[in-house]
Design a protein that fits this description.
The chain has a five-stranded antiparallel β-sheet with strand order 4-3-2-1-5. The chain has about 90 residues and is α+β, with helices and mostly antiparallel strands. About 20% of the residues lie in helices and about 30% in strands. Strand 1 and strand 2 form a beta hairpin. The mean pLDDT is about 90.
C-alpha cells in the first residue's frame, strides 16, 4: 500500500461529512489534516483518523508544485483542485 502524503485527495468515510472530498494537508501518526478551501479552510484543517478516510493517491499539479516549493497552499487552490477532481468532464 502506498504511503499517505501531503497534497493527495481523500474522501471521508465516516462522520457528518461522509462522502466529501478533501485534500490532505498533513499526516501525523494515525491522523490526517484535511481541507477543502470552502468549509474547511487551510488555516483550520479538519483532523480525522486515517481509518475514516479513503485516500486517492493522485495529486493536483498546482498543489504538488506549491508543496515542492514550500509555498503555502491557498484556499482558492484547494477549491479549484477539488472542483476539477469532482468534474472529470471539464479536464
Amino acid at each position: 500500500m502506498q504511503e499517505l502524503r501531503q497534497g493527495m485527495y481523500a474522501r471521508s468515510l465516516a462522520g457528518h461529512d461522509k462522502g466529501k472530498l478533501y485534500v490532505i494537508l498533513a499526516v501525523d501518526g494515525e491522523y490526517v489534516y484535511l481541507a477543502d478551501g470552502k468549509n474547511r479552510r487551510a488555516d483550520r484543517p479538519k483532523k480525522k483518523k486515517i481509518r475514516h478516510i479513503q485516500p486517492d493517491f493522485h495529486m493536483d499539479a498546482v498543489i504538488k508544485e506549491k508543496l515542492d516549493l514550500a509555498v503555502p497552499v491557498r484556499d482558492e487552490d484547494l477549491k479549484k483542485a477539488i472542483k476539477l477532481k469532482e468534474e472529470p468532464s471539464r479536464r
